[in-house]
Write a structure and sequence with these properties.
single chain, 4 domains, two-stranded antiparallel ribbon, 18 helices, globular
Length: about 450
């Protein structure tokens, strides 16, 4: 993309929650420290909340990467729309328990407890992370407290981390969930970055992407513009800065200016639809006026004059208008003071009335020719031609004979890939295995052209 143009080694503002880009600010550092302490002391239930885009998933990924995988067994659930029975099935699959599908929830829970006791004796710890927990069904949330009963005399066997948006706190405050809410031993919350930390965040990501001097990529004024528009939300800063870099790359501008940041920010806002052009009404109005004039002349003029003038006016009309006018029958005029004149076709007289009319020389009636303005085409906005790079070459990954390599296509998500590979009844645990095998942290976006490894449906 634009990495070579700006002298970078990687994209600095990707939207995926990459733990390698974790910003060591006060809020994120405190959140990670709180989770590490709660897990180390086996508190049981932990909750992390924060607004959209503040980096909750990045914090969780960074926490899991810091732990020794020989001691810590993470079970990461990123698709929370599961029932409690499905959650138990996922946990048993991740613990590699071979159980009869018809075993039932109670016996499955007992089998999980026995396995957790065995792992505890080996000084190993299981952490269940439920991301987007505010979307968990209420029945699943209510039954989560049953998992807190998996314990020894002095420690919890399973650590559960609920990660969600602030509405998760309101959901747990409901009376029917008070038993679960009282079991949460530690609550951490991420806040928006301050202005100083926001600028440090932008510079931090550029330097991790290979920039020796971040201001050679973006001016100080451009940093200020991004911070003002993003309001301390890291995801907003990533999106806005990435758009500005793409736009500057297309315009061959370096470093990125504050004006370009404001330009791409305005381009992303909703624009009011242009008002429809109404110039076509003028020609229609002119034709209608001519037709009315012809009808009026026909009603008030003598028969001979009306026929002569009608023929002359018809020649002045367009073909479509003239063909719509039919000559009125020649009848003597009926003049009634202050009366509405009706068309001759509907006038019926029982006795013919003869009214002598002296010939009068009338001046020719020349109706005004309407001025038809030329239609004005709406202005066409031009956008700078952007340079298009070829898709990245697929990664070469070593796989075992039982595994399958898959190259990501445009529009693919991890969920879609697993549905293709394992069928529509793919269990969430299978998706978690694919994530763990490829170190994928999100189902939202996968890099086009990337090669991932698909493990076999069951452990070999």
């Amino acid at each position: 993309m634009y990495t070579r143009f700006f002298g970078l080694t990687r994209l600095p503002f990707e939207a995926s929650p990459d733990p390698g880009f974790l910003f060591d600010g006060p809020a994120h550092r405190e959140a990670i420290a709180s989770i590490e302490y709660a897990v180390a002391t086996r508190m049981g239930f932990i909750m992390l909340t924060g607004e959209v885009g503040l980096g909750k998933t990045t914090v969780i990924r960074a926490f899991l990467n810091r732990y020794d995988r020989g001691r810590l067994l993470p079970i990461y659930v990123f698709h929370p729309l599961v029932t409690f029975d499905e959650l138990l099935e996922l946990i048993s699959d991740e613990l590699e328990l071979t159980l009869d599908p018809a075993i039932g929830s109670f016996n499955r829970l007992r089998a999980i407890q026995r396995e957790l006791i065995r792992l505890y004796a080996e000084n190993r710890q299981v952490v269940l992370v439920l991301d987007e927990a505010q979307r968990l069904p209420e029945d699943t949330l209510e039954n989560l407290r049953l998992l807190t009963n998996l314990e020894t005399d002095d420690a919890k066997l399973l650590q559960i981390v609920l990660v969600g948006q602030p509405e998760l706190e309101a959901i747990l405050a409901q009376p029917q969930l008070r038993q679960l809410e009282q079991r949460i031993m530690l609550k951490a919350r991420l806040e928006s970055l301050t202005r100083t930390d926001s600028i440090r965040y932008l510079r931090h990501r550029l330097m991790l992407a290979g920039a020796e001097d971040p201001e050679e990529i973006m001016t100080a004024a451009a940093f200020d513009a991004v911070v003002d528009l993003a309001d301390g939300v890291p995801r907003r800063m990533n999106i806005l800065a990435n758009r500005a870099l793409i736009d500057a790359f297309g315009a061959d501008e370096k470093p990125v200016s504050a004006a370009r940041v404001h330009k791409v920010a305005l381009a992303g806002r909703h624009r009011t639809a242009p008002q429809p052009q109404r110039q076509w009404l003028w020609p229609l109005g002119g034709v209608t006026l001519l037709i009315l004039v012809i009808a009026g002349v026909t009603l008030v003029q003598p028969a001979g004059f009306a026929s002569e003038e009608l023929a002359r006016l018809r020649a002045m009309l367009p073909v479509s208008a003239s063909t719509a006018v039919t000559p009125a029958p020649a009848v003597p005029p009926i003049i009634t003071p202050m009366a509405v004149v009706q068309p001759p076709a509907v006038i019926v007289a029982e006795t013919p009335i003869s009214v002598p009319v002296e010939p009068v020389e009338y001046p020719p009636v020349i109706p005004p020719t309407p001025s038809i303005p030329e239609p004005v085409a709406p202005p066409v906005e031009t956008t700078p031609v952007q340079k298009v790079k070829a898709p990245p070459a697929p990664d070469v990954i070593a796989a075992t004979p039982q595994e399958t390599l898959y190259t990501v296509m445009p529009g693919d998500t991890l969920w879609k890939i697993c549905i293709k590979a394992y069928g529509p009844d793919t269990a969430p645990s299978m998706i978690s295995r694919v994530m763990s095998r490829n170190k994928i942290v999100s189902d939202i976006k996968l890099l086009w052209g990337k090669t991932i490894i698909l493990p076999p449906p069951k452990p070999v």
